[in-house]
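Same chain as my last thread, 334 residues:
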Amino acid sequence: MSQASTTAPSEWSGPRRRLWILVAVLAVIAFLYFVPDLFVAYTEDAYVRSDFVEVAPEIAGVVDHVEVANDQKVTVGSPLATIDPKPFDLAVDLAQRQVDQASSAARVKQDEAKVLAAELDAANAGVTFAQRDYERSATLVKDQTVSQEIMDRATDARQKAFDAVAGVQARIRVNAGAVETDLADVDVAKAQLALAQYNRSRTRILAPVAGYVTNLSLRPGAYARIGEPIIGLVDDSQWRVVANFKEYAASRLKPGMRAWIWLDAHPWRLFPARVVGVGRGISREQDRGRLLPYVAPTTDWIRLARRMQVTLELEPKPDVPLFMGADARVLLFP
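reply #2:
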């Protein structure tokens, strides 16, 4: 009886026992790997993001002043830099002179129109007088009171009066076209003046958003070109966290879900957040256009499952500094 009792434990402690221990360990590992994913969505592949605003001038010129320092916080409308305004002041002065010249030419033509109107009134009066003389002469000739020669002179005078009216009317039409052209020139000159004034106002480059000046290398004397960014701002009002979740985890997430975020910049604190968007597509090729995000499927030569981008918003905004591109970790209970 004693021998049998000592044999059984020895058999249990042999290969059979090690097999059961291995099976138990594998079961625990499988449980920890598969089951928590049914109740928890977690990823370490996340980062803090905001909008990076590239400020580019609308005009070209030499930078006269740089009015901010690197990493400085700015508000909307804060001056960032100034482009030398002297060339633009000269352009405004020239455009103003062109407006004055065109306006003066238009006034001359308008005054000429008044003179021509007076001439037309005089010519019409001449027609009236010639017509009366013609009618009187025609009556006298009919009564044989005067000779035909008098009638001929009256007819000739009436025709000359008609010709004078026609000539003044033609000059009025020509003048009206000239006035219209000069007034159009005035409008063009005023538009050019407005453009010159607008360009002068663009010599001061202002912050379009509130944020932080980042990686500033602009110095006075640099030549700024139209549309080429010279100052970068990290928008301080658009902070969010972009997390890359495995496909089966992302498919269970919906906007509005609560989440907890760990920021590596501020460890040992969990920040509340909510899902604001679940990406519906990624690019499978890195060299394609940037309209679709690309999430690398490999890390340290290990191929990972495809991951989808999920955007989360910190609520409320934390009272700690945030850094664009900083690492984060995200935990949800879908």
